[in-house]
Design brief:
Rossmann fold; six-stranded parallel sheet; 39% helix
Length: 288
């Protein structure tokens, strides 16, 4: 199935969502799942387009998952733009959108849900170190998304590189019938990775945030002439001088996300706060 004409079917309950996915497979088609938390932008549109171009019946989920927020204020501030999201998905040709409530997904909330999925090792470094419990929440909700949807192809953005590593690991370990497709990061004219959080940046903040991709460019330019530690120090200095409150500026193994001296298989991972907003970016150390 290719591009869908008209507005996507809105699935407001988990049962409707599961039935839709089962009906797609009964018709001999494949579900292309695009998990989101809403506040959609061109990066999300790229995921939807990738799914439709692969011939999948595109099912987008919009659910702000409270389990992955370790900061209540961050959760409260997360943008909600459902009307605009539905208009975008209509333009993008999505076939269906699931919009479950928190009670649908987590009946015990705000109490801790009894079952938690944890991907050990990947959950405690980089983003996991600064946001304790974040990847437990991600792994748990993604496992539930896959359980409701059933066999599918799932599309994720490369911007959330650590999230992709966590999801790939849980799919492998739990033998889930899900194929993970990673779509390249979409950037603005200044090179800043598109994120729903960017909407919270001031004009000055947007300018400062461009230091994240320029730090990556700096690192790539040093890859063949400098040691890893020197490159990390240069990135840190670059970010600080451009007004970024640095969370980390690290070069790690692209699979394990642990420190490495192997430039060929290394990934640049940067994160920091601008205007109080946490931003992340990444790229291979050696340009592909």
């Amino acid at each position: 199935m290719t591009m869908h004409d008209g507005a996507p079917t809105v699935l407001t309950t988990v049962d409707q969502w599961r039935d839709f996915a089962n009906d797609v497979r009964r018709c001999g088609a494949r579900v292309g799942l695009v998990p989101t938390m809403g506040a959609l932008h061109d990066g999300h549109s790229a995921l939807v387009r990738a799914a439709t171009e692969n011939g999948d019946v595109t099912l987008v989920t919009i659910f702000v998952n409270p389990l992955q927020f370790n900061d209540a204020q961050d959760l409260a501030n997360y943008p909600s733009t459902l009307e605009n999201d539905l208009a975008r998905l209509t333009r993008d040709g999505a076939h269906a959108v699931a919009t479950p409530t928190v009670h649908d997904m987590w009946p015990h909330y705000p109490a801790q849900t009894p079952t938690l999925v944890r991907v050990r090792g990947l959950d405690g470094v980089l983003e996991g170190a600064g946001r304790p419990g974040h990847f437990d929440g991600v792994a748990t909700v993604v496992t539930k998304l896959f359980a409701i949807t059933g066999p599918c192809r799932a599309y994720f953005g490369e911007k959330d590189f650590q999230q992709v590593a966590v999801v790939r690991q849980l799919v492998a370990d739990l033998d889930l019938d899900v194929e993970i497709v990673v779509v390249p990061t979409v950037r603005n004219e200044q090179g800043l990775a598109l994120s729903s959080r960017n909407a919270r940046l001031s004009p000055e903040g947007l300018q400062a945030a461009a230091a994240l991709p320029s730090a990556i460019t700096l690192a790539q330019g040093m890859a063949n002439t400098h040691k890893i530690a020197e490159i990390e120090a240069a990135m840190q200095h670059h970010l600080v001088t451009h007004g970024v409150d640095v969370a980390y500026a690290a070069i790690v193994d692209a699979i394990s996300l642990t420190p490495t001296d192997d430039a060929a298989n290394a990934r640049i991972m940067v994160a920091g706060f601008v205007d109080g907003v946490r931003l992340i970016d990444n790229a291979p150390l050696v340009k592909e």
